[in-house]
Amino acid sequence: MPKASDQILTVAQMTAAEQALIAGGETVDTLMQTAGRGAAEWVWRIAAGRTVTVLCGPGNNGGDGYVIAQTLHERGVEVQVLAPYPPGTDAARNARAAFAGQIVDAGTRPEGEVFVDCLFGSGLGRPLESAACDTLVALASGHRFRIAVDMPSGIASDSGLLLNGGLPAYHLTLALGAWKYAHWLMPSSPMMGERHLVPIGVAAVEGAASLVNKPRLAAPDVDAHKYSRGLVAVAGGVMPGAALLAGEAAMRGGAGYVKLLADSPPAHRPIDLVANDQPLEIALEDPRISALLIGPGLGRQNASRERLLTALARDCPTVLDADALVLLRPEMLAGRKAPVIATPHEGELEKLCAFFSVDAESKLSAARDLARASGMAIVAKGPDTIIAAPDGRLSLARPATSWLSIAGTGDVLAGLLVSRLASGRDAFAAASEAVWLHGEAARLVRPPFTASDLAGHISAAIANCL
User: Fold this and answer.
1) Owning domain of residue 439
2) Where are the alpha helices (DSSP H) in 85-210?
3) Model pTM greater than 0.90?
């Protein structure tokens, strides 16, 4: 179960978590005070004496806004509230009654320094009315700094879908109580700006998704040797460069030994990347192999398919990437017991869902349902990376740099994955570690960079986890 500070909740899970707090002695009013005053701390620091406009909606998100405004007013900040709707809940009415500052006419368009969006929070499931949307956009454009409380208005919390066009982007989003899916999913994620969590006492929720966080790694045991740390086999194909990149990443990812299995190994390869040019079925007989990667540079010919079948017949922990995902069919996994990690980008994810008869409405549901249907751990790559395990575990990665959008970085991730898998991690843990290390290496390397530059910074990323 993830820590409460890392968990990602649906609207239904968040509602149940709040009800659990109320059953334990809290009230809606006290929770609103905790959330609003916690958010006000961030607004106060950012405002630094500058004027603040708070847009309050009719629900409890609007009530949070009144608490924020009152807290700022008590601290001497020049704050005004604009409320296009009357409060629609008892707690929101109480918060509005307690606000001792200025409430301006809903038809005005005040300008200022800091805009705080408390119009609608995570419970919104329909588009904003045109007048409310116009007010939101006008206020956002009339202020230099924009803050969303809990969720930017006009976004579906559970999916990250934009319910209206032309919505503003924010410099800061303050998640109340727990992270929501839209904070980390496309297309809403880029609109959030910096993200911070305002705790209100929500406990860890059974079955909740979580954020991918920095792994806790350690130096090898004092009696470790190259085989105890894991022997990685990278099955090459018709395009050797991709397998070389994956092999280089695997060597830096923690495994003790990496072998390139290729019919014609490239002459120009790292001197510490061992090559084996035996037929694949013979090379894979080595009982010391801890984990296998196939897909980078594999090709899509009949011979490539046979190579994939041979690799899957070796029932050891396996990473399937790139061309292997295009060639894969459900029957190829029949009878396997060892874990498999698949690393599809969006196009490959769509194809895999078709192969495994998964009818998904979103990338999130596609990754989750495909993992269950196939028995594979799924790393659904992209600007929002989703990791799904067959047992229902789910995690989302924080956004990595967009400089990763070059050829070869997926091969580097595949090499990292198989290296962490060979180190003895279960598939979900190996995927989580690899995704975090991949993003950290990208943060450390100087942009613009190449895929080989990225691979060269994996060691530094791991060092930051020791």
Assistant:
1) 231-463
2) 90-98, 130-141
3) yes
